[in-house]
Amino acid sequence: MTQCMRRKVAATSLAATGALLLAGCLQQPGSGSGSGFGPDNAETDSDGVVTILGAFGGAEAEAFNASLEEFEERTGIDVEYTSDQDFTNTIRARTGSGQAPDVAIFPQPGGLMEQAAADAVQPVDLYLDMASLEETLVPGFLDAATDEDGRVYGAPMRMAVKSLVWYPQDAYAAGGYSTEPETLDDLADIAQQIRDDGVAPWCMGWESDQATGWVGTDWIEEYMLRLHGPEVYDQWTSHEIPFNDPRVIEAFDAYGDLIFEDGNVLGGPSNVLAVPFSEAILPAFEEPAECLMERQGNFITGFMPSEIQANLDSEVGLFVFPRSASGDYTDQPILGGGDLAALMNGDDPDSISVMQFLTSDSFGGPWAQAGGWLSPHSTFDASLYPDELTRRTAEIVADADVFRFDGSDLMPNAVGGGTFWTGMVDWVNGASAEDVTTAIEESWPVGEGEDS
């Protein structure tokens, strides 16, 4: 059934109904205005109040609200943000009962697309200028919010970046190691030089209570992107190819060359299961440094020693986890995540105004200045970031050829938050890549993915 035929229209006669449907279907995508007759909720339209539900709270919620103050003063719209740590279940319950918020900010693409499939989200091309949005966004960011028919249902409000390699500036500089490796081969050469100097190249920790293993899944996703490119990556995360496809095995083998190389990881590969992910970087700041590099997301600075955090620009360096020079894909990808804003009240012009602001490169200045926030727009004013390290992170993403969401967040939770995690633990403990990927493939929920 088409989007136009699904729209709910209240009319007093058959003729009026037909006219309204025609008007809705003739709405031109990308016009930048609401189509009308979209997903509705119990909120009053055009009342100057817009409700938003999200998963982040505390200081992040405060910074979010601060970033809306100028908009509220300028437009007269009152934005009411509610934080819910059980966002996934709450948004399902509220939507199912007709109590959806005007706008929802989804921490993972899967939840957004679930609501889009239930006709609870307005396609963004009906109220956003798609040409302008795609021009300013990091390439590939909208793909995770796009259905099989090519319709986009959400746009990013903030970005997280995972494809980063961090190092202690003084110890790294003392060794004279390159800070700009262009390829995975160059990175392997750096690791060899560090090993030759008697230091473990890689700091690594996977321990995360019941979520132990997610760090390992990030590494596999990095190699899937670099060796085979975004198209194959998308086929893998959507189960268009099986989890035990030979190309996935190749990604495991490539990571295996790094983690199982004698002396390459501090404490050896089995030790990573005992090291909390939040503490993995700490040995890099010992005197002398016990390891020199960690591949981890931009959030990791928050777990560095307080004296390091106080002087990030002078203490810490970073570079992009580099591209492959010889695989099926040789451009530079970025793995990451983000919060996707979605319109759940398609008839409310106030909500549309809020969405247009939230998803623009004008949003987020106060949050950026407070720290801990990155804009998904390459055109965002980088001078608003509080330190050079954050500006460098934004520059790395802006220079990338394509962005892809964390693969485990795109997979069914039973896999992405279950068997993929536990499978990585089995693998680092000695199970073969073939056995691990086959077990994960067999765990994929029936009906989710073309090969199920």
Count every helix, treating DSSP H or I runs of 4 or more residues as helices. Answer: 19
CATH homologous superfamily placement of the largest domain? Periplasmic binding protein-like II
**Average of pLDDT:** 90
CATH class of the largest domain: Alpha Beta
Task: Count structural domains.
Answer: 2
User: Would you list the SSEs in sequence order as H and E?
Assistant: HHEHHEHEHHEEHHEHHEHHEEHHHEHHH
Spatial gap, N to C terminus: 24 Å
User: Which regions contain 5 or more consecutive residues with pLDDT less than 50?
Assistant: 1-36
Q: Give the percentage of residues in beta strands.
A: 5-15%
The CATH topology annotation of the largest domain reads as: D-Maltodextrin-Binding Protein, domain 2
Largest sheet: 6 strands, mixed
**What is the second-level CATH architecture of the largest domain?**
3-Layer(aba) Sandwich
What structural class is derived from the secondary structure elements?
alpha/beta
Number of strands: 10
**Cα gyration radius (Å):** 23 Å
Family: Belongs to the bacterial solute-binding protein 1 family.
Pfam family, one: SBP_bac_1
InterPro entries: Bact_solute-bd_prot1, SBP
Organism: Ruania alkalisoli
Topology:
Layout: H1 3-6, H2 14-25, E1 49-54, H3 58-66, H4 69-75, E2 78-83, H5 87-96, E3 103-106, H6 109-117, H7 130-136, E4 155-161, E5 164-168, H8 169-175, H9 184-196, E6 200-202, H10 214-237, H11 246-259, E7 291-295, H12 306-309, H13 312-315, E8 316-320, E9 333-343, H14 349-358, H15 365-370, H16 388-399, E10 402-405, H17 407-410, H18 413-428, H19 433-443
